[in-house]
Design brief:
Shape: globular
Largest sheet: 7 strands, mixed
Distance between the termini: 14 Å
Number of strands: 7
Structural class: alpha/beta
CATH architecture: 3-Layer(aba) Sandwich
Order of helices and strands: EHEEEHEEHEHH
Helix content: 25-40%
Number of domains: 1
Strand content: 15-25%
């Protein structure tokens, strides 16, 4: 499995809505693999571990959101993995803050990180963990909204979303989940 968290590199983006993919992957590592350390590889931050007899590769692209595919494709090729082995955690405007939905395939819905992945993977048919960040209400507010930091009263919902993902993560290794 290649588990990818989408986000933007740098401290100025660390706690922004667009970075919930990074936050969720880091929460998984903290809960299940506390001693893992990151290394720079594949134009990203990379770590690997074993769980339930399966090798898991973790990747946080450092290419900026709109170029995420430039990080994911080389990792996929290096490990000789198929698109069915990819799970991408990303922010989702069309879900309420902290809601989590899992799906396979679909369009990019204007999400430039997903657009880059679809372009570089050659298919939209990868698994996605959609992490709700809510919507600002108007299309012209989307860019500043996703690049904005969470308000203090929103943080508990973000933490609950990360908790849901970390609890569900071991089930993602089940072959039946991959269908």
């Amino acid at each position: 499995m290649l588990l990818v968290g989408l986000g933007n590199p740098g401290s100025q983006y660390a706690a922004t809505r667009h970075n919930v993919g990074f936050m969720a992957v880091q929460a998984i590592l903290h809960r299940h693999f506390a001693t893992l350390s990151w290394q720079e590889k594949f134009k990203g931050m990379y770590a690997s571990a074993n769980m339930n007899g399966e090798k898991i590769h973790f990747l946080l692209p450092q290419t900026f959101m709109n170029l995420s595919g430039e990080s994911v494709r080389p990792a996929l090729d290096f490990f000789k993995l198929d698109v069915d082995d990819v799970v991408v955690i990303h922010d989702e405007l069309d879900l309420e803050l902290g809601d989590i939905r899992i799906k396979k395939g679909g369009g990019h819905a204007g999400h430039n990180g997903l657009k880059s992945l679809i372009q570089h993977l050659g298919t939209p048919d990868f698994r996605r963990v959609r992490f709700g960040i809510g919507h600002p209400g108007r299309k012209d507010l989307v860019s500043p909204y996703v690049l904005g930091r969470f308000m203090a009263e929103e943080v508990p919902a973000v933490e609950q979303g990360c908790d849901k993902i970390t609890k569900a993560f071991p089930d993602w290794l089940d072959e039946n989940w991959k269908g």
